[in-house]
Amino acid sequence: MAETPANGRPWLSSVRFRVAATALVVVGFAFAIGGATIVWQLHRSANGTVADLTVSEAGDVGALLGRGTLPTRLIAEHPGTEVQVVDDRGHLLSATPGLAGRAPVSDLRPRPGTEVRFDRAGILGEENDTNVAVALGVRTPSGPRVVYVVGTTEAAEQAARNAVLPLVAVLFGLLVVTGIVAWVLVGRSLRPVERIRSQVAAISGGDLHQRVDEPPVADEVGRLARTMNAMLARIEASNDQQRRFVADASHELRSPLTALLAELEVARRHPESADWPSVADVALSEGMRLERIVEDLLLLARSDEGHLTPRHESVDLDELALEEGARLRARGRVTVDLRGVGAARVTGDGELLRRLVRNLAENAERHAAGAVRLDVRQREGWAELVVTDDGHGIPPDKREWVFERFARLDDGRGRRSGGTGLGLAIVGEIARAHDGSVRVADSAVGTRMLVRLPLDPATDVAASPPADLPAAVAGPASSGPEA
User: Fold this and answer.
1) How far apart are CA 443 and CA 481, in angstroms?
2) Which CATH number applies to 313-454?
């Protein structure tokens, strides 16, 4: 039993939800980085302010010492700072109340006019609090002195901490707004796609002549709609072709069955006057016709499924042409010219290639007025088989169509003459399976079929002269060839 997506909540697996969720994750990540950067900048700015205050305080005290004035108890001008003044031996000379009576905050003794900044924990406030300090060397009338100014960062850090909660609230609100906007915009963007989906769902279960609405803009949705309509057109054409194929195949199978059953029914009703050898001949003929139709249909089905894979063996195309030409001569219906058959060897399936040559030869025989010509030659790495008849020929606008299944130029006559309408379709499939091609070549009279197959690369047969074939074989008019 198939599982319901997302535990019964299909919207969790929808494109709309995934896009909106992705947007939220990306924006949330950006907000988190931005918020952390803002807090860090606030902290850095506050610490910088404290550092500047300590330097300013040290300068003020140093100026006071330079004038020879040093009160025993100092008062810091900047809030959050404490001051110590020591001599060059480290004896405490003066201090603000926060550092009075305490040992010097540092062993640093910078030369007069030199300033040294340093950080140290636990000077002011709690033990783990970070303090920003500066040591300034000062020259006085009484000798060199060192001014230590210590500033606490507790106030700056508290200000940064106080800014975190409002900042998080603002960013969370922006994130919610972003999610809502993304959900709405993605929904509006996908609305045409959902409309196309619903239209295709309705079409797939009904009339294939319908098409989806195409937006006037040339965006992704418009291209999707046009691609969908093109696909629907191909499906409709394929469906129509399949229906025609089934109808034609049913008709082709019914014709010999009807003839066979009619012959047997008449013989059964009048057994005393029936010509049983003739009945057997009719039954055998129609049975063979049924067998050939079924074989043709099976071969085309294999081709449609991609299973028409030829064997790779060396095949003398000229020998196949000579054998089929001799077979036509033995039947005695047409004269056969084989003078243009030259040596040509190809790689492929001998049985399939024999069927290709036979279908072309029988097609030419069926529609020739009295003469058929077979030619085989080599030209520019290709083996060319040309089958020419002296019939009416094929109109230019029908030259590709005759290779369709059950295609006939003269439907009634084609059936009466024994054709199934599958011969040339099979020729095309076999040629393509051998990386070759088949087409109706130009001819002043009659029809000329040209098949091109790759030559066997290992062949050492000399190429036959590439002279052009006669445009047609002389003879009276005939019907056009059947596919």
Assistant:
1) 13
2) 3.30.565.10
Contact 20, 186 (CB under 8 A): yes
3-state SS of 24-70?
HHHHHHHHHHHHHHHHHHHHHHHHHHHHHHHHHHHHHHHHHHHCCCC
pTM: 0.51
pLDDT tens, N- to C-terminus, the chain (483 residues) = 444 454 556 666 677 788 888 888 888 888 889 888 888 887 778 777 778 888 888 888 888 887 777 777 777 777 778 888 888 888 888 888 888 878 888 888 888 888 888 776 656 555 545 678 888 888 888 888 898 888 877 777 777 778 788 888 888 888 888 888 888 888 888 888 888 888 887 876 567 777 887 877 777 778 888 888 888 888 888 777 777 777 767 766 777 788 788 888 888 888 888 788 888 888 887 788 788 778 877 777 777 777 677 788 999 999 999 999 999 999 999 999 999 999 999 999 998 999 999 999 999 999 899 999 999 999 999 999 999 999 988 888 888 888 887 777 765 444 445 566 788 988 999 999 999 999 999 888 899 999 999 998 876 444 444 444 443 333 333 334 443
| Residues 6+ positions from 166 with CB-CB distance below 8 Å | none
- Measured in residues, the chain has a length of 483
Kind and range of the H or E run holding 326? helix 317-331
Domain assignments of the chain as residue spans, ordered by start: 11-206, 220-304, 313-454
Crossing angle of the two packed helices 317-331 and 350-367, in degrees rounded to 10: 40
- Going by C-alpha positions, the residue among 286, 285, 283 that lies closest to residue 256 is 286
The CATH class of the 220-304 domain is: mainly alpha
* Interatomic CA distance for residues 214 and 221, integer angstroms: 8
